[in-house]
Amino acid sequence: MDGNWQSDLEGWLAPFLVALRHKTRARMCPAYIEGLIGPGDRKSIQPMAERTGAASYDQFHHFIASSPWDPAPVEAALLSEADRQVGGNDAWLIIDDTALPKKGNHSVGVAPQYASALGKRANCQTLVSVTLASNEVPVMVGLRLFLPESWICDTARLDHARVPDDVRDYKTKPEIALAEIDRVRAAGVRFGCVLADAGYGLSAPFRQALSARGLTWAVGIPFKQKVYPADVKMIFPVAKRGRPRQRHIPDTKSITAQAMLETAKWQKVSWRRGTKGALSARFAAVRVRIADGPPQRIRDMGAQHLPGEEVWVVGEHRSTGERKYYLSNFPAEATLKQLAGAIKARWMVIIPFFAGSITGLQAAAVSFIFGVTPPMAIFGRSLLYVHSQRVA
Questions:
Q1: How far apart are CA 165 and CA 155, in angstroms?
Q2: Is the Cβ–Cβ distance between 125 and 102 less than 8 Å?
Q3: Beta bridge partners of 273
């Protein structure tokens, strides 16, 4: 960005400021975004207030955490601009977790829980994030807090935190993600593929819901995810004794994704060039049917999930020795390079500014979880402004 970026920021924000429907918020919003995208490493409220001089700490805090918001027009403005700048058939919609580590237990939703973003169990708030990305430019278009069961079951705690009645039903993170995907699609945002890590990919209902919506997807899975060969057949074997079998069964047992790929052909694939040269790893892919159909007990096979959708199972061997596994409903004619490119696209969009925005979000989210939505839209608008300056 050039040195005159501050002078045109408010003009660029004009449609978004109208959506705020409040003169004071319209005045505070440019100052807050200036604090987010301007110089300085610390993006929490106090240091931003000191740097910009446009408002006091109390004014910034009230703007973000205390002032009542109507999120609908704000989110609509963000989604419209995000689609204009980043949307398209080549865009990715990336589902992920954002963990906000905490030391106490008063922040809404805070609990000891596994945080995939941290790679361990921690005392934290967990947010389900939805990011629209294209050409390595990410725009956060959705952010919702996950409420653990320990919160949902504690009515007094919910009352004390002023959690609205309409969000007190327990929802898993995949269920939250699906609701956000539906919201983004209803707004007309265009994307070609949904990406998610194994925290979402291990959920059969999540994968099945994406396919039922006609969406293309690529998700991480645990190595022990069970799959069948693509040519598995359903048969009615003749029982040796007793009554005839009433239900058909697969003609072979399901095996793990890891075992399915052991004899596959592994190839070195480069998906893009980084600052230090080509980024590559060894990949293999085989067409399979996921073992996520209705469960059925089979005498000589034990309990088995019946074959489900035919998809790709993909393996990745990294130079570090780490191995990862994925499922994707890309077409049968997809190439290994296309599969690898989709899988790795989730990592292309992690840039330092995005991490900085989450730091700012931490300051906003601690007071009132359901005030997270408007700050999220402001962070997304900040990213869009940076992108507009890059391509100008």
A1: 10
A2: yes
A3: 278
Q: Are residues 97 and 206 in the same domain?
A: yes
Last residue of a domain, one of 189, 212, 235: 212
Tokens matching residue 227? 């799959």
If asked whether residues 110 and 23 sit together in one domain, one would say: no
| Separation between Cα atoms, residue 266 and residue 264, nearest integer Å | 6
User: Is the domain of 204 the same as that of 253?
Assistant: no
Cα distance between residue 363 and residue 237, in whole Å: 62
**Inside any domain, residue 94:** yes
User: Does residue 345 sit within a domain?
Assistant: no
Q: Is residue 9 part of a domain?
A: yes
On whether residue 83 sits in a domain, the answer given is no
**Do 40 and 132 sit in the same domain of this protein?**
no
From 183, 212, 241, give the residue that closes a domain.
212
Structure tokens at 49: 């207030």
Q: Dump the DSSP string for 53-93.
A: -SS-HHHHHIIIIIS---HHHHHHHHHHHHHHHH-STT-EE
Q: Is the Cβ–Cβ distance between 146 and 177 less than 8 Å?
A: no
| Total count of domains within the chain | 3
Do 35 and 95 fall within a single domain?
no
**Domain span at residue 63?**
5-71+351-391
Both 208 and 221 in one domain: the answer is no
| Burial category of 320 from C-beta neighbours within 10 Å (exposed 0-12, middle 13-18, buried 19 and up) | exposed
What are the distances in angstroms from CA 151 to CA 116, 127, 156, 260, 284?
20, 15, 9, 40, 42
Residue 84 phi/psi, 5° resolution? -60, -40
Per-residue pLDDT of the chain in tens (392 residues, 90 and over written 9): 455 556 666 666 776 777 777 777 777 777 777 777 666 666 677 777 777 766 777 877 777 666 566 667 778 888 988 898 889 999 999 999 888 888 888 788 899 998 776 778 999 988 898 999 998 788 888 888 899 999 999 999 988 887 888 888 999 999 999 999 999 999 999 999 999 999 999 999 999 999 999 999 999 999 999 999 999 998 876 666 666 666 788 889 999 999 999 999 999 999 887 777 788 999 999 999 999 998 887 766 677 899 999 999 999 999 899 999 999 999 999 999 999 999 999 886 554 334 444 444 444 443 334 434 555 566 666 666 666 665 55
